[in-house]
């Protein structure tokens, strides 16, 4: 089953993954994404990247608005 996630939902998922990994550094090691990038995304200074979305086990699909 597919669920539509908005950016705020993906940020929430990232926060949970960071907590599970014991912090941003642990999450960086686990995902291969730099700790500084994770930090910037969490502080909403950078947008989510395709690589980060993929590291969370998600895929980007575009949907038209009605």
Could you walk me through the main structural features you see in this protein, from its secondary elements to its overall organization?
With 66 residues, the protein is mainly alpha-helical. It has one domain (7-55). Helices cover 55% and strands 0% of the residues. Helix 1 packs across helix 2 (24-31) and helix 2 (24-31) packs across helix 3 (35-42). The longest helix has 14 residues, at 7-20. The two termini are 22 Å apart. The mean pLDDT is 93.
Topology:
Elements: H1 7-20, H2 24-31, H3 35-42, H4 50-55
Helix pairs in contact: 1-2, 2-3
List keywords for this structure.
55% helix; 4 helices; 66 residues; single chain
What is the strand tally? 0
Helix-strand makeup class: mainly alpha
- How many distinct domains? 1
Q: Considering DSSP H and I runs of 4 or more, what fraction of the residues is helical?
A: 40-55%
Shape: globular
Q: What is the string of SSEs from the N terminus onward?
A: HHHH
Question: CA-to-CA gap between the ends?
Answer: 22 Å
Major beta-sheet overview: none
Parts with pLDDT < 50 across at least 5 consecutive residues: none
Query: What is the beta-strand fraction?
Result: under 5%
Instruction: Round the Cα radius of gyration to an integer and report it.
Output: 12 Å
Mean pLDDT: 93
User: What is the overall number of helices?
Assistant: 4
In quaternary terms, these chains amount to: single chain
